[in-house]
Every structure is written in C-alpha cells, then in structure tokens.
Amino acid sequence: MHRIIIEGGKELSGEVKISGSKNSAVALVPAAVLCDEEVTIANVPNISDIDALDEILSYLGAKVTRKNDVIKIDSSKIENKLIPENITKKLRASYYFMGALLSRFKKVEMYFPGGCSIGARPINLHLKGFEALGAKVKEDGNLFTITADHLKGAKINLDFASVGATINLMLAAVKADGITVISNAAKEPHIVNVATFLNNMGARISGAGTSEIKIIGVEHLHSSFHEVVPDYIETGTYMILASAIGKDMVISNIIPDHVESLISKLEEIGVSMEIGIDFIKISAPLKLKQTNIKTQVYPGFPTDLQQPISTLLTQAEGKSIINETIWENRFLNLHELNKMGATTETLTNSKAVIIGPTKLKGKTVKATDLRAGASLVIAGLIADGKTVIENADYILRGYENIIEKLTNIGAKIRLEEIK
Ligand code: EPU
C-alpha cells in the first residue's frame, strides 16, 4: 500500500514525455497468446496493470522477458488452465484472456475480472459476441466457462460501442472461419493499435477506427514486433495539469489528434496552446472560464479525463456542469475535492456541478479509482500546503513513473510505502 505526499503551489515547467497507452498495452499483452511464436511489444508502460498481466502469462506457462519498455512473450508452451481469481481480479483487462484463449484453445474458464469500481461494469456484450461466433457460455456465480467446437464468423452489432467488447471480439474472431463484422464498434486509438498488432501477426482486419470492423478469419498468426501507441489519457492528464499550474510545460511523444476533444475544451476555457507534430506546449492562463463537459465515446470527450478536468474546473470562473454518460460511479473525487475547499455538488450519478474559482488547501484525501487519483494529484499540486493521497496504488496502475515525471518539472511530490 502506498500514499502520495505533495507540497503544492509550485509552478511546473519543463518536459513530460508520455508513455505507451495503458489501455492499449493491457490488450496487446493478452493478444500475444494468439500466436505460438515469440512476439515483441515496445513502448509498454511500466505500471502495475502490466505486472498483473505478466503474472497471468507466467502462470499459464508463457516465457515473458521485460527490459525497459520492451516485453517479449513466447506463449508456445502455455497451458489452458483456470487463472486463480485473486489474479484475475487485479485488473479489468484480464478479460482479454477470454477472447484470446477462446480463439487459441476453443475453451476458456475464467473468473469475472476486477478493475476500478466506477460502475457495474457488466460483460454481457462480450459474452453475447462470443455466442454469436458459435461459443457456449456457462455462468456459475463468478466463474465463466466458454467453449466452442468451432468458431464461425458472424455479424455482431454492439448495443453500445464498448471498448472491451470490441477488442475481445476481435481477438476471438481473428481465427474464426469466415468473415466477422462488428458494427457499432468502439473507435478509440487503442482499437486501431490492437488491430494493427494483429494484422502484423498475419490477421486480416479492416475498418478499425471506424464503427464497422471487418475480420476475415485466418488459420495462423505468426511472430511480430509492435509499438504501443502513446497514452492519450496520460497526455490529457498532463495537459490539464499544465493548464492549471504550468509555465511553458511541454508534453511530448504524443499524437495531438487523439486529444482533439480536450484541446477544444481547453481553448474554450481560455487556455492557449502551441501544438506541434508530437508535442503540445501549455502555460496556465491567468483566468479560466467555466464550461460544460459531456463524456462520450471516442472521439468525444473521454470519461477517463472527466475526473482530471473536474479539478481544473474548480479553478474556473462560474458554474461548470459535468454530464458523465459512460460510468455510474465517477464523481467520488468531487467529495475529496470539497474537503480541499472546492465547491462541487453531485446531483445524480450522471450530473454534477462545480462552482469556481475556489482556492484549494492541502488535506488528506483518498483516491477511489485511477482517474479519481489523477484528479487528486492535480488538486494537490495546485493546493497550498501539504496534501496526502491515500490509496495511491490506484494511481500506480495507470501512470508510469508519475513521481519522477512530476519531480522533473518542479513538483514536490513523493511516494511513501505503508507497511
Ligand atoms: N458495457 C456494458 N456491457 C458490456 C461492456 C460494457 O453494458 O459488456 C457498458 C459499461 O457498463 C459502460 C460502457 O458500456 O457503461 C463502456 O464500457 P467499455 O466496455 O467501453 O469500457 P471498458 O472496456 O470496461 C475501457 C477502459 C476504461 C475506460 C472505458 C471507456 C480498459 C482496460 N479500460 O473500459 O478505462 O473508461 O474503456 O473508454 O481499457 C481507465 O483507464 O481509468 C478506465 C476505466
């Protein structure tokens, strides 16, 4: 268990280099088991979610080697066995082993995945998709047994453009007989990243990044090399921080197109930015204006940046309204921000109001999930005095080297282990 301690109010300046995308890497790593040769993935972030996937792969008997940001996975000798529930529960993305192992062995037994408690997080769309491909799903409490004599391409329409279901169904369909079409597919950059990886391995996937993905099943996938796309949520988190307290802060190694919706919101509230090919330079303006945020699937405003931007809006003049449309439990950070002096009110599961600007004061607060944690780190860096963030392990799940990155730009921040 860890806590983060911040002495706030220091202007931040310098460069932050963005790491590979968590939500892409957590899908690419399980996808490696689709192939019985060694695959190499570079730009993999060093975060605890990847450690958990490494633990699953090693448990199944894969040979995993990690050096810096490169992971090599040889799953030629893996055994298809039940992963203990305590490992599956460490993260959400363990569910990608469902699609990947089903494709490879035509059978998978797995417990319900874990992950941040930001809503009910059902997996009905994944299961319905597996069934459309010809699998049988048996549910026994928390345990799912999915079997198929034969996986056959199908037309699958997702009720909601779910990131997880889109990726899991690509994994399951990649070696199915015939053609699969996923309509109302998610379009996030990590969907394209995963499809590119699979295509590099010999898959035939087209349309990733649009709402209709076509997969022509192939018999065999082979070894390949792949690079994780930059993390647009980490990018956005540092852009928001720079808008609050940055001076010529440069966020580099990014794809600016992926944060288009955030750029447009920041411009609206008075932040001016220099946008380069692979960097954005931001200084906090003297004044910020209120805005309204509605979270949407990509390319709309991402739910994963809703909590970080809420902290920024406590510094904006006027009343901002947040409409969270993806998750039912993503306002818990507001309660903690109020402890620090913010004026926010949660009206319903999906609607909250922030009235600013308010001065934030350092306090002891609790991270309730990964992005709530990011929201509190930003608050602690803005606030006067000392902020202690309990449950900081949530933050370490998704932000590589956050302490070092922030220290390098002038923050007074440290991580403390609680024994
Ligand atoms: N949904 C269903 N049934 C399903 C799947 C999803 O009803 O079978 C609903 C969910 O309840 C939710 C919505 O669809 O209301 C979106 O869920 P989605 O499947 O897109 O989310 P996810 O795959 O579980 C990923 C990221 C989340 C991110 C969301 C939305 C990973 C491991 N997680 O979750 O990331 O918020 O997409 O973009 O990729 C984070 O990084 O902090 C995080 C929570």
CATH class of the largest domain: Alpha Beta
Number of β-strand runs:
23
Category by helix and strand content: alpha+beta
Percent of residues in β-strands: 25-35%
Provide the helix percentage. Answer: 25-40%
Number of domain modules: 2
- Let me know the largest β-sheet: 4 strands, mixed
- List of distinct ligands in this structure: uridine-diphosphate-2(N-acetylglucosaminyl) butyric acid
Number of helices: 14
User: Segments where pLDDT lies below 50 for 5+ residues?
Assistant: none
Give the CATH topology of the largest domain.
Answer: UDP-n-acetylglucosamine1-carboxyvinyl-transferase, Chain
Output the radius of gyration.
21 Å
Shape: globular
> Average pLDDT value?
97
CATH architecture verdict of the largest domain: Alpha-beta prism
Name the CATH superfamily classification of the largest domain.
Enolpyruvate transferase domain
Strand adjacency order, main sheet: 21-22-1-23
Distance between the termini: 7 Å
What's the structural blueprint in terms of helices and strands?
Elements lengths: L1 E6 L4 E6 L4 H10 L6 E5 L5 H13 L2 E5 L2 E5 L10 H4 L7 H10 L1 E5 L12 H9 L3 E5 L2 E5 L7 E3 L5 H11 L5 E5 L5 H12 L3 E3 L5 E5 L8 E3 L4 H14 E7 L7 H9 L4 E3 L3 E4 L9 E3 L11 H8 L4 E6 L8 H8 L3 E4 L4 E6 L7 E3 L3 H13 L3 E5 L2 H4 L5 H7 L3 E6 L2
Parallel strand pairs: 2-14, 3-13, 9-10, 17-18, 21-22
Antiparallel strand pairs: 1-22, 1-23, 3-5, 4-5, 6-8, 7-8, 10-12, 11-12, 14-16, 15-16, 18-20, 19-20
Helix pairs in contact: 1-2, 1-7, 4-6, 5-6, 6-7, 8-12, 10-12, 11-12
